[in-house]
Design brief:
The complex is a heterodimer of chains A (228) and B (229).
Chain A (H helix, E strand, L loop, with lengths): L6 E5 L4 H12 L4 E5 L12 H4 L7 E4 L5 E4 L1 H12 L10 H31 L5 H24 L12 H17 L8 H4 L1 H11 L2 H17 L1
Parallel strand pairs in A: 1-2
Antiparallel strand pairs in A: 1-3, 3-4
Helix pairs in contact in A: 1-3, 1-6, 1-9, 4-5, 4-6, 5-8, 6-8
Chain B lengths: L6 E5 L4 H12 L4 E5 L12 H4 L7 E4 L5 E4 L1 H12 L10 H31 L5 H24 L12 H17 L8 H4 L1 H11 L2 H16 L3
Parallel strand pairs in B: 1-2
Antiparallel strand pairs in B: 1-3, 3-4
Helix pairs in contact in B: 1-3, 1-6, 1-9, 4-5, 4-6, 5-8
Classes of the chains: A alpha+beta (228), B alpha+beta (229).
GO molecular function, one term (chain B): glutathione transferase activity
Family (chain B): Belongs to the GST superfamily.
Organism (chain B): Lentinus brumalis
Chain lengths: 228, 229
């Protein structure tokens, strides 16, 4: 049954990487239908999703205005969307060097932030036994990453990562950083994110104030109460 | 420091992500000077390296033919090298859909292979206490990633990930796959990679037989031997 929207987005109510892509779709004013997969039932590893994405992880995007083009890996999706649909280049950069710096930040987010923050949640919530040293490892790495971002942002004249403005580079970090603040570092002794990483905090809050973020935060909260 | 090469390449003698980029530099015939950082001594977490890469991880690349442009994150470096220097598209593709699929595979390698395989090594060798359940988690994930690649490659035109030919998408998986097969699956019973993941294995073997890849893997192995590993 075709929903009539330009995109189908396979995603999850909680997963940060899905909301990351949804934020960009909103920012670009693109029409999309979200299918929220049930991880308890392992839907992400079953048909139809696994037929589109053999890795069985969300998000996966289908572009019905481009011959049902299928793409997975959230930051590959971000690049596809801005390159093809951000005609004014509002959320990306055009300078040759800056484009590669933007890619660099996307790869750092995808490899150095997401997976490490994600391992905290695995060991804190899902691992078959409690391993405090593993939990601690990923809490420490979370702080280290926030420190790296803080140091870079403190020196950035615009307070953004690249191009002197908000781009998908900044956007890509937001959903996992939100999880870091609300969960990963919440009860860690002696940690005060706002105080210890002030440039990071200001940058995070500026992103949070965007209309797209407010809209989807509310949407997500509503979905969570439905599925709880 | 003027070594006369086009690039200064900050890397490590064993670190897989460094060798990943070295493959591409060699395959594209680019001149580079490798600076092997002393990770044990913390050289990567201090200036001058952190002036180039505030995250303090290798590799990082400086292009002296482009105003000393500095870039880090191996996936980003690889895209920079092909976009700027692979004019004949020998290791990349030109069509729009192929390009984004290539980028997709690079992100899968960077987020779904490297970090997970890396955690296996962390818990096997470096974590302050032995946690068999953590080692097992990441070993299982290694096999799951092998099976994902196997399933795709069994159906892929030419037996390569994108465009029916070898590209940087394929090359990017080699170092961590190599490391996983050599070291990280020890202690796992009933594992037979060529039998259980035949398309994956055939693909990996084709890649490691490439002239430049073979040469660099031999160099890496020499360094490992010198380090007593």
């Amino acid at each position: 049954m075709y929903h009539g929207k330009q995109f189908t987005l396979y995603t999850h109510v909680g997963g940060p990487n899905g909301w990351k892509v949804a934020l960009l779709l909103e920012e670009l004013g693109l029409s999309y239908e979200s299918t929220y997969l049930d991880f308890q039932k392992n839907e992400q590893k079953q048909s139809p999703h696994i037929d589109y994405n053999p890795n069985g992880r969300i998000p996966t995007l289908i572009d019905h205005k481009n011959e049902d083009f299928v793409l997975w890996e959230s930051n590959a999706i971000l690049l596809y969307l801005v390159d093809k649909y951000d005609a004014e280049k509002r959320l990306t950069v055009t300078d040759e060097k800056e484009k590669h710096v933007l890619d660099q930040w996307l790869f750092f987010q995808a490899s150095g932030q997401g997976p490490y923050f994600g391992q905290y949640f695995w060991f804190a919530r899902y691992h078959p036994e409690k391993v405090p040293s593993a939990i601690e490892r990923y809490q420490k790495e979370t702080q280290r990453v926030l420190g790296v971002l803080d140091g870079v942002l403190a020196k950035s004249p615009s307070g953004w990562l690249v191009g002197g403005k908000f781009t998908i580079a900044d956007l890509s970090f937001y959903t996992w950083d939100r999880a870091a603040i609300s969960s990963i570092l919440k009860d860690v002794e002696g940690v005060d994110v706002e105080k210890q990483f002030p440039a990071f905090w200001a940058w995070h809050k500026k992103t949070e104030a965007r209309d797209s973020v407010k809209k989807l935060t509310e949407l997500q909260a509503g979905l969570r109460t439905q599925t709880a | 420091m003027s070594h006369g090469k086009q690039f200064t390449f900050y890397t490590h003698k064993m670190g897989p992500n460094g060798w990943k980029v070295a493959f591409v530099l060699e395959e594209l015939g680019l001149s580079y000077e490798s600076v092997y950082l002393d990770i044990n001594g913390g050289e990567h977490k201090r200036p001058p390296f952190t002036d180039i890469n505030p995250n303090g991880r290798i590799p990082a690349l400086v292009d002296h033919h482009n105003g000393d442009f500095a870039i880090w994150e191996s996936g980003a470096i690889i895209l920079y090298l092909v976009d700027k220097y692979d004019t004949e598209k020998r290791l990349s593709v030109a069509d729009e859909k192929g390009r984004y699929h290539l980028i997709q595979w690079l992100f899968f390698q960077m987020s779904g292979q490297g970090p997970y395989f890396g955690q296996a090594f962390w818990f096997m060798r470096y974590h302050p206490e032995k946690v068999p359940s953590a080692v097992e988690r990441y070993q299982k994930e290694i096999l799951r990633v092998f099976s994902v690649l196997d399933g795709v490659l069994a159906k892929a035109p030419g037996g390569y990930l994108v465009g029916g030919k070898p590209t940087v998408a394929d090359l990017s998986f080699v170092p961590w796959n190599n490391a996983a097969m050599r070291y990280a699956l020890q202690g796992l019973e009933g594992v037979d990679i060529p039998k259980q993941y035949p398309a994956f294995y055939a693909w990996h073997q084709k890649l490691v037989e490439r002239e430049h890849v073979k040469k660099l893997l031999a160099l890496q192995a020499k360094f490992a031997q010198e380090a007593g590993l």
